[in-house]
Every structure is written in C-alpha cells, then in structure tokens.
Amino acid sequence: MKPYAKLRADLGLNQSEFWSRVGVTQSGGSRYETKRKPGKPVQMLLALAYGSEKERKAVMKQLGM
Q1: DSSP labels for 8-30?
Q2: Least CB-packed of 29, 37, 61, 64 within 10 Å?
Q3: What pLDDT does 1 receive?
Q4: Using one digit for the tens of pLDDT, what is the confidence trace for 27-54?
Q5: CB within 8 A of 33, min separation 6: which ones?
Q6: Angle, CA of 46, 31 and 48, to the nearest 5°
C-alpha cells in the first residue's frame, strides 16, 4: 500500500475523511502519516478500506473468511 499521506491525497480526501473511515481521529491519522506506524488492526482496516483487491483478499484470509 502507498504511504498513507500519498494515498489520501490521491483520493482527494482530507485527514478527517480518510481516517474516520477506519475509526481513527484526524490527530491520530496525522501521527500515522508523519512518524508512527499504525498497529496491525489499523493496518488491516486500511487494507480493507483502501487497499487493492489482492490486499483485501489477504486480510480476509488472515481473518479466516
């Protein structure tokens, strides 16, 4: 997956719009875009919400679905 800030910009979304889709606040998303790596649950939600078909299928497989 692309770096989060690049992906968000490519989608034309502001931080609040982008991050709220996966249950993260704007300030939390800002930290993920600049210096912190999101935990595994957030990474999985991001893959489901914004990832490629291959990324979504990989997450679904991890979840046993």
Answers
A1: HHHHT--HHHHHHTTT--HHHHH
A2: 64
A3: 60
A4: 999 999 998 999 999 999 999 999 999 9
A5: 3, 4, 5, 8, 15
A6: 0
pLDDT at 35: 85
Question: Residue 2: is its pLDDT beyond 90?
Answer: no
* Length of the chain as a residue count: 65
Half-sphere exposure of 15 (CA within 13 A, CB side): 12
d(CA 26, CA 37): 15
Q: Which two tokens stand for residue 3?
A: 């770096």
- Helix %, strand %, coil % of the chain (to 5): 70, 0, 30
Q: In terms of C-beta density within 10 A (0-12 exposed, 13-18 middle, 19 or more buried), how is residue 2 classed?
A: exposed
